[in-house]
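Records of this kind hold a single protein each, on a pair of labelled lines. With that in mind, the following record should read easily:
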Amino acid sequence: MVRAGKHLIGMLLGAGLLWGCVAVSIQETEVDPYYTPDLVRSITFGGEFPSEIRGNPFAGQPEIGDKILNRLRMPGMFPQARFVPAASRDQHRVVLVFSPVLRGLRGKEACGGLAGMELAPAANELDLVAALCVGERVLTQIRVEGILPPGPDDAAFGRILDQSIVSLLPSNETDRTDGCEAGAPC
């Protein structure tokens, strides 16, 4: 199992560089051994990354799910792939849930049935739960909270999406504390 501490520190540092008002943290420390860079490469082999976008952080604006999918980018360590709507909840996918009413929402709920989930943007607040899912199983998750940028076209919102994907997907880095490779059992 990979310890969450190294992920948390890296994400907090990345978030600080990203935008001073956004904190990124892991809500669950369990990381499945199946969660590896090779898994992501196999999911995106056809040039697409299945995804689900729920909610809209920008109150009073039209649904922006397609805009978010078009804005998401793969980190440089992976082959480029377009984020596309998932055809089924049974497949591997990234799930982004914006503005959940339930403050304790975690990847477990995000990967499951989303039909009864209440979503409501709060003025000037960003609340995002992102999870990498296989069916209803959570491989990993992050939560992003902070001040909401002015709109979906704002560069800061794009950086938040970029950092969220970088933080969510497995890394090729080696844990310097005990020699474990991120995502691999130790």
